[in-house]
Amino acid sequence: MNIEDLERQQLELSKKLILEDTKPIENIRLVAGIDTTYTDIWTNPTVAISSIVVLDIENNFKEVEIVFAEKEIDFPYIPTFLAYRELPSILEAYKKLKTKPDAFLVDGMGILHPRKMGIASHFGVITGEISVGIGKSKLVGNFEMPENKPFSYKPIFVNKGKRGYILRVKKNTNPIFVSPGNKISVDSSLQLALKCIGRYKLPEPIRLAHNHLQEYRRKILKEG
DNA sequence: GCGACAG
DNA sequence: ATCTTGTCGC
């Protein structure tokens, strides 16, 4: 498939997006974080490693479950097509989950994407899960910078439509980009992200998925 | 035409 | 995204 075909596929998938709340935010208790890394980012093909960590946000972010998956991939990183690179290994990890999280936070964008199909939305549409995108830098959109104080935020617009929020979690830290993946509204995505903030700038599910992934990667590179 | 461009 | 220790600043 070429880029044009992939764009058409994204547009087709975007028709299945549900951008309304499908569950009261107060009933979301088990929140999963998803992150992906690579054994080598400079080669293709390479091996993608994904992890999903499930936390109970009403019990001190207690870890309920963690799974990993490794998968050989041959799709390069191309802006706006991240899902085609990372989703295969993410879905393998997803299959290993024994618990059923109420929602998933995915490292990357949701509808804060040219065709509303960032990796969090792609994951949400494919699995039918409630998902939210958590990005660390800008992909698309117009916005004002939030003030340099904790929990200040500004809406992000794409073609006049509100697609997400830029949120500064802590003072003197770069803001993060929050947008709905699927089955949740723009505003509730922000509320859920806020509920998942612990002591650091990244929501706990994402932060822990990232941390566990790093140690897992170190270990397999060392041992083989 | 030019710059921007998640991980 | 990865390679990497200490170090400067709030």
UniProtKB/TrEMBL annotation:
Enzyme class: hydrolase
Signal peptide positions on this chain: none
GO cellular component terms attached to this protein's record: cytoplasm
Keywords: Cytoplasm, DNA damage, DNA repair, Endonuclease, Hydrolase, Magnesium, Metal-binding, Nuclease
InterPro entries listed in its UniProt record: Endonuclease-V
Protein's cellular compartments: Cytoplasm
Catalytic activity as recorded in UniProt: Endonucleolytic cleavage at apurinic or apyrimidinic sites to products with a 5'-phosphate
Listed EC numbers: 3.1.21.7
Major localization listed first in the record, in broad terms: cytoplasm
Site location (Interaction with target DNA): 77
One MF term in the entry's GO annotations: magnesium ion binding
Binding-site list for Mg(2+): 35, 107
Segments passing through the bilayer: none
Top-level division of the source organism's lineage: Bacteria
GO biological process assignments: DNA repair
Cofactor(s) listed in the protein's UniProt record: Mg(2+)
Pfam families cross-referenced by the UniProt entry: Endonuclease_5
Family matches, as PANTHER family: ENDONUCLEASE V
Family to which this protein belongs: Belongs to the endonuclease V family.
Function: DNA repair enzyme involved in the repair of deaminated bases. Selectively cleaves double-stranded DNA at the second phosphodiester bond 3' to a deoxyinosine leaving behind the intact lesion on the nicked DNA.
Protein's name according to its UniProt entry: Endonuclease V
Organism: Hydrogenothermus marinus
